[in-house]
Amino acid sequence: MSDRRAVIVGAAETERIGVVPDVSALEMHVESARLAVADAGLRMGDVDGVATAGISPIAVAHYLGIAPTYVDATTVGGCSFLVHVRHAAAAIAAGQCEVVLITHGESGRSRVGAPPRVMDPASPMGQFEAPYGISGPPTLFPIGVLRYMKEFGLTHEQLASVPVAQRRWSVNVPRAMYRDLLTVDDVLASPMIAYPMHLLECCLVTDGGGALVVTSAERAKAVPGPKRPVYVLGAGEAAETPLVSMMEDFTTSKAFRFSSRSAFAEAGLRPGDVDHLMIYDAFAHLPIFGLEDLGFVGRGEAGDFIADGNTSPGGMLPMNTNGGGLSYTHTGMYGMFLIQESVRQLRGEAAAQVPGVEVSLAQGVGGMFMAAGTLILGTEAAAGR
Amino acid sequence: MNGADGAGASKAVPVPTPDTERYWQGTARGELWIQRCGACGRSYFYPRGGCPHCSSTDVTWTRASGRARLHTYVISHRPAPGFARGTPYAIAVVELEEGPRMMTNIVGVANTPEQLDLDMALEVDFEPRGDQMVPVFRPATDAP
Q1: In A120-233, which residue ranges form alpha helices assigned H by DSSP?
Q2: Could you tell me whether strands A359-366 and A276-279 are parallel, antiparallel, or unpaired per DSSP bridges?
Q3: List of chain B residues whose C-beta atoms are within 8 Å of the C-beta of residue A138
Q4: What pairing do the DSSP bridges indicate for beta strands A70-72 and A6-13?
Q5: Which pLDDT score, from 0 to 100, does residue B8 have?
Q6: Residue B3: what pLDDT?
Q7: CB distance A246–B46 less than 8 Å?
């Protein structure tokens, strides 16, 4: 009987991440694609599906000499790549394609071959947000944090404990951009960017890329690669609003809730079954929202949970073990790096490896709480349960 | 004038579209107009040709009272073009008396955490952005 469950058989990041001023965004896609296909033990000619965001999948495919018969250009911000995995899994299950290559490359810092950032003054954002002095995500994404603080009593110190916890991971990750341990006082003493967010509560801005190869479990068994396949146990996607100012409730993400609900239902798992967690941390409040919206803790409990060390090394729920967007890297659409770290942890090859990870959840966000994508990934043992 | 300041740049100017034109005609007169659904009775913002709550297209324009409460905000230390002279400044979301929320700036009070209390009472005012007027909010004069 055929096994059309989706597995990730190849995963790789560009050799250099961080500050890479001599490589274009497109070249980042291509380099990571070649590395991921090699990681899978496949040849480029085996790829029949291409998915990416931020650039046309046709441009990536053509550069690589692929004439794809499956393309996915879904662009919903930084969670796009998690959504691409979900779509690839569905297409593979339906028999529409066999080997899907998902690529990310972004010259977020050096802006080499990167499209200009433009604001359409006739768009909803151009009419109803831009006139009030917004200047990029730091002035938009955290706009609900004060509301959350008032509703749930989150303190500035608890918020500052998020980057502190993640540095405890990145100190052991050689590829991370920032690896020095931090204290809460260090965070609160860093420059104010957009009150209540300090510099160290805002993500990095970097260059880099990553790619994945997704295929069916039966193909992975028939043509085994050098690495153990990582199973897609469940996936979800959701969208709430193109404007952060129109969020239904500023203390919770509807997209996080809906997307994760789908993923848990498909996987037949609950938060307590997750060994390792990645939550897209463009800003320090995102892991707090994510822990609550995904059901790992109750409403208003995440600040204490993180400050008490539960997500730090040795804690009960290892989270953002690469150091996250706050310490590892953040190219702009960081979601690809969530998946990469989940795959590394499940393969047992992460720099800051957590022992015995069988189930890893990656939660992505797109735009400013605009959209979300969730992947629950597992080892073959977890998939066989 | 028109939002130009010492930095030499101008604040972003909104460009109306057919579905938002009446809103901008209202702000030019110093009036805040929102839409109300004839089917479910709820008011909404931003302007669009159908109710986001129930999908009805039976919607009418109504003038808002201009009374609002401060729902949430950030105080930006990174000035957008035209905002350098007023930095740091609050980018806020207010909740109108009628229910909908909207992004805005807060005027007539120091934009500091000490002065900006969530849920404080506000009333609408208007400021130029190029050839348009945008609603901004100041502490309510009749606040208890």
Answers
A1: 124-128, 145-152, 156-170, 184-189, 217-222
A2: parallel
A3: 74, 76, 78
A4: unpaired
A5: 61
A6: 39
A7: yes
Q: What is the DSSP letter of A347?
A: H
Subunit contact B72:A250, Cβ cutoff 8 A = yes
Burial state string for A228-247 with b = 16 or more CB within 10 A and e = fewer than 16: bbbbbbbbbbbbbbebbbbb
Calpha distance B66→B25 (Å, rounded): 16
CB nearest to A131's CB, from B14, B78, B79 = B14
Q: What is the pLDDT of residues B46-64, one digit of tens each?
A: 999 999 999 999 999 999 9
What chain A residue is nearest to B20 in terms of C-alpha separation? A127
Per-domain residue ranges for chain B? 21-139
Q: Which domains does chain A have, with CATH numbers?
A: 6-115+206-232 (3.40.47.10), 136-202+234-383 (3.40.47.10)
**Owner of token pair 């160290």:** A200
Q: DSSP string spanning A237-258?
A: EEE--S-GGG-S-TTS-HHHHH
Helical (H) or strand (E) element with A91? helix A80-93
Residue keyed to tokens 């349960």 = A385
Range of lowest pLDDT (A112-121, A177-186, A308-317): A112-121
Residue the block writes with tokens 């945008």: B134
Give the amino acid at B63. Answer: R
Question: Which residue from B minimizes the CA distance to A245?
Answer: B103
> How much is the pTM?
0.96
Find chain B residues with C-beta within 8 A of A250's C-beta: 71-72, 93
pLDDT at A62: 98
At A311-360, the pLDDT tens digits run 999 999 999 999 999 999 999 999 999 999 999 999 999 999 999 999 99
Q: Would the CB atoms of B88 and A129 count as touching at under 8 Å? A: no
Burial of A184 (0-12, 13-18, 19+ CB in 10 A): middle
Phi/psi at A126 (5° precision): -65, -30
- Residue B9 has a pLDDT of 82
